[in-house]
Design brief:
Elements lengths: L2 H15 L36 H11 L12 E10 L20 E9 L14 E9 L2 E8 L12 H8 L15 H9 L4 H7 L14 E2 L4 E4 L5 E10 L8 H10 L3 H11 L5 E10 L25 E10 L4 H6 L12 E2 L4 H17 L79 H8 L3 H16 L4 H11 L4 H11 L33 E6 L5 H13 L3 E6 L4 E3 L5 E3 L2 E2 L10 E4 L3 H9 L1 H12 L3 E5 L2 H7 L18 E4 L8 H12 L14
Parallel strand pairs: 11-12, 11-16, 12-15, 16-17, 17-18
Antiparallel strand pairs: 1-2, 1-9, 2-3, 3-4, 5-7, 6-7, 6-10, 7-8, 8-9, 13-14
Helix pairs in contact: 3-4, 4-12, 5-10, 11-13, 12-13, 15-17
Length: 702
């Protein structure tokens, strides 16, 4: 079946399962219409409730069972439907997986993003790894690429997974802290398990604080295997690259966003899709011939290692676009079940010990979380490929099997369903032999070279953020021996890193490196080395009060919208504000209901009365100052420059139409219809750079 057909069939499946309760008669689960649902059946108005009230009993019983066990990890998530389409057929040389090789076909997908450590009720913007799990509904069966926004993991063998999760979860004595790694047990684990250091470097970097799911990379983490029509294997690493670029929040910002809007990333994804700004990612692969398996200074089977892109470039395969939000969060986003062992012909596993454990664990998890073995029949999990097998009965069985047999081989049903038909999955043929042993390969034991590579590849700004993150996290650790052990491990990564961290957490700085810094870099590891710029979907707050320059606001808002940005007029109160020409300007948000951390940029228009009112309002001044502190683009024109001065942003920022020293503040004394086009261009350029990293917080006058 073609993948366009697969997409149509998936949509048809979901249409059949979609229930619209609007304007319908209220019924029980058995379809019996209900006459009254506000009061229980009782013996008299003040008498005892009667057990024969089947409606209330059913209603309460169902409510009591509405919650299923949340995921042990990745509990808090957001999801969406979309499509994947390959660019061309070049990958057919390496795999028989049709959804990766036929540019004429599209494959429906469901993508779930998530944090890892927190519960379902935690905030989106915590410092954490993000899940990036994609279910492809292919004509050959479901394929799940269950990845993260880091290319490496914390441990090398799945046997350690329960230990790692127990360490990072809230401490058992008091269930504190929620969705945070800044506590004793996690860092105790890290200090004694140096294999964690590479992923820890990513966790301490800005990669752990994504601006949005739409601006976040994804990785398959493991080395998988592609298999061609002749049974030849090729090692593969999967990469997802966002069309909008990879951008992050800053630490002070994420803590405030958690209070202002704990659903920040979830809301951003939902709003983008609803507004037609469909998120896009490019799927790329790194391919390694099997004969080159041992050509690297690390082991390809080690999930704590990545393949530097300078050694093996990422080759583009196709594009994924998210086009539709779920209709019901529980039925779809919460019940979607991923499994690393859900593969299709042309994709197979390697002997990565972490991957092997995941192949066992995921199925076991779904069985208990979703109530039994028939969870694949839930609409969001149901494949578009036809399902025929001899598996029967069990909790939640929705299929009505009419066959006279449920075993193989049989003569009664002509031996159907038959194995071995054309297109059947065939496991990759690999010779395996060895002694039963519990011992990790020596090739897994270089724990420090790649963390050093990551550190060496950071820009000055990124390195400063990593040091600050280590200081914050370890500053929350009560046991100073644990702090000291972590610093001792960091000296094997880089002596300067260890010394800078030690200086902030009250432990002695090491005087000798654990090993020499190899000096190698990989620019692809830095978010700032090759940024994607642009204003598309960036949110811009336009501060306004009575007397605002109506013509100037209109021109600014129209220009930003034409460039794909999302401007919002933020007033001191909701409703409208009076413009200086006697008209009105609609207010999108009231200042008390928002915060600067929810926007990517701030503009302060002209209007003497408006500027005076904003200058007198402490919240408005804080809004501007805080946005400036977080490196965001700031624009002001005409009397709006008075607000910038009152916000104690250095006077030099209010003297020209161009960003001063590339610090992202764009100003002009013009207003209304006289605003120069260069002002709009400069502001858009400053927004597109995401942050003015040349700006320091001491640029805000004391």
């Amino acid at each position: 079946m073609g993948h366009d057909g697969a997409r149509d069939r998936k949509d048809q499946q979901l249409d059949r399962d979609r229930v619209v309760d609007d304007d319908q008669a209220l019924t029980t689960q058995q379809g019996v219409r209900v006459d009254h649902t506000d009061d229980s059946l009782a013996a008299g108005e003040r008498g005892p409730t009667l057990m024969e009230d089947f409606h209330v009993r059913e209603k309460i019983t169902h409510f009591d069972h509405e919650r299923i066990p949340e995921r042990v990890v990745h509990a808090r998530g957001a999801g969406a439907y979309g499509v994947f389409q390959p660019y061309d057929d070049w990958l057919a040389e390496y795999t028989t997986a049709r959804f990766l090789t036929d540019p004429a076909e599209t494959t429906p997908v469901f993508l779930r993003f998530s944090t890892v450590a927190g519960s379902r009720g935690s905030s989106d913007t915590v410092r954490d790894v993000r899940g990036f799990a994609v279910k492809f509904y292919t004509g050959e069966g479901n394929y799940d690429l269950v990845g993260n926004n880091f290319p490496v993991f914390f441990i090398q063998d799945g046997a350690k997974f329960p230990d790692f999760v127990h360490a990072v979860k809230p401490e058992p004595k008091n269930e504190i802290p929620q969705a945070a790694s800044a506590h004793d047990t996690l860092w105790d684990f890290v200090s004694l398990q140096p294999e964690t250091l590479h992923a820890i470097m990513w966790l301490m970097s800005d990669r752990a604080l994504p601006r949005s799911y739409r601006m976040m990379q994804g990785f398959g983490v493991h080395t998988f295997r592609l298999v061609d029509a002749n049974g030849r294997g090729t090692f593969v690493k999967f990469h997802w690259k966002p069309a909008l670029g990879t951008h992050s929040l800053v630490w002070d910002e994420v803590q405030k966003v958690a209070g202002a809007d704990p659903d920040f990333n979830r809301r951003d994804l939902w709003d983008a899709i609803e507004s037609g700004n469909f998120p896009e990612w490019e799927l790329g692969v790194q391919l390694v011939p099997e004969e080159d398996e041992f050509a690297f200074d690390f082991d390809l089977l080690d999930a704590t290692k990545l393949i530097p892109e300078e050694q093996v470039p990422v080759r583009p395969v196709g594009k994924m676009t998210l086009t539709r939000n779920p209709d019901n969060f529980f039925a779809e986003t919460e019940q979607v079940a991923f499994h690393t062992a859900n593969v299709v012909p042309g994709i197979d596993f390697t002997n990565d010990p972490l991957l092997q454990a995941r192949n066992f664990s995921y199925l076991d998890t779904q069985l208990i979380r979703l109530g039994g073995s028939n969870f694949s029949q839930i609409p969001v999990n149901r494949p578009v490929a036809e399902v025929h097998n001899d598996q029967r009965d069990g909790y939640g069985q929705h299929r009505i099997h009419t066959s006279a047999t449920s075993y193989n081989k049989n003569s009664i049903s002509a031996n159907a369903p038959m194995p071995g038909c054309p297109g059947a999955f065939t496991h990759y043929t690999e010779k395996v032999e060895g002694t039963k042993i519990r011992k990790r390969s020596e090739s897994f034991k270089d724990f420090y070279s790649q963390p050093t590579l990551f550190w060496n590849s950071m820009t000055e700004v990124e390195a400063e953020h990593i040091v600050a993150a280590f200081r914050f996290e370890l500053g929350k650790v009560n046991d100073r021996d644990i702090r000291a052990r972590v610093v001792d491990q960091l000296r094997y990564v880089d002596l300067d890193l260890a010394a800078r961290v030690a200086a902030g957490i009250g432990v002695p700085a090491p005087t000798e490196a654990g090993r020499p810094n190899h000096g190698r870099t990989s620019p692809a590891l830095s978010q700032l080395s090759d940024p994607v710029t642009g204003v598309a979907t960036r949110k811009v707050a336009v501060l306004a009060a009575d007397g605002v320059d109506g013509a100037g606001v209109t021109r600014l808002v129209e220009d930003l919208r034409a460039r794909g940005a999302i401007p919002e007029v933020v007033g001191l109160t909701d409703g409208t504000v009076r413009s200086d020409d006697g008209g009105t300007v609609d207010v999108d948000k009231a200042l008390p209901t928002v915060a600067s951390v929810l926007y990517d940029a701030v503009a302060v228009p002209c209007g003497a009365d408006s500027a005076a009112a904003l200058t007198r309002d402490g919240r408005a001044l804080h809004f501007v100052t805080e946005a400036f502190k977080h490196g965001k683009a700031i624009a002001g024109f005409g009397a709006g420059l008075d607000v910038l001065r009152a916000a104690r942003i250095g006077a030099g920022y209010a003297e020209g139409a161009d960003p001063v020293e590339d610090k992202g503040v764009v100003t002009t004394t013009a207003h209304g219809g006289d605003l120069p086009s260069g002002f709009f261009d400069a502001f858009a350029d400053a927004i597109g750079k995401h942050r003015a990293w040349a700006r320091k917080t001491d640029d805000v006058a004391a």
